[in-house]
Amino acid sequence: MSTHGRLAVGVDAARGGWLAVCLVDGAFHDAILVRRFGEVIERWGDAGAIGVDVPIGLPATGMRAADRLARKILAHGRSSVFPVPPRPVLEARTYERACRVSRRLCGKAVSKQTYALRTRIFEVEQCLAGPPRIVEVHPEVSFTALRWGPPADPKKTWNGLTQRRQLLARAGIVLEDVLHRAAKAAPDDVVDAAAAAWTALRVAKGVAGTLPCTPPRDGSGREIAIWY
Questions:
Q1: Using an 8 Å Cβ cutoff, are 177 and 124 in contact?
Q2: Which helix or strand (DSSP H or E) is residue 153 part of?
Q3: Is residue 145 part of a domain?
Q4: Close Cβ partners of 112 (under 8 Å, ≥ 6 residues apart)
Q5: Do 134 and 107 belong to one domain?
Q6: Total count of domains within the chain
Q7: Which of 24, 94, 154, 166 has the lowest tally of Cβ within 10 angstroms?
Q8: What range does the domain containing 151 cover?
Q9: Residues 107 and 155 grouped into a single domain
Q10: Per-residue confidence at 75, pLDDT binned at 50, 70, 90?
């Protein structure tokens, strides 16, 4: 029997690949660390939605409204949002060329950290054409929606990690203390993927919101939005 509508998945880029958290009927079901994003689709292709913490939808010029709004909402956590440059910047074959294109289109060079995201972005893009529905999320935006305000402490601190696990538990997502198939995953990657799964569940139910409220579309017709 298909689990479409009952199953939602959240994915976070992790060391060595991708960390995915699966929910069934809104509760934690599984967590797994895979090397390719496509493996998530192969395993859970009947999901109602998949939320991934990777930019989807690249502008031809300028910066994305979604990133500006996310940085504004997160206040002291705004540094966790990397402003996504235009597509021509990320399509540049070298960092030096990317900086030249960025200066021409945006007035400044692109950071090495942002340029390094191109591999993840284009890996996800290859999976967007078919089902299931894949949407962009930002875990800190999702946690802000869960808490009705940004979490008080950074996620890499003990207090911050505890706060995020408690927020997820209140939403019915109780993370197991031992994750056998994701044993090598970093703790903050696990809570981030779980937050992404919470947003994916909201997308599947048709109750999720977006930044901005009316998303623009890129040259391929994809919505440029962060879902929560």
A1: no
A2: none
A3: yes
A4: 95
A5: no
A6: 2
A7: 94
A8: 7-57+130-211
A9: no
A10: confident
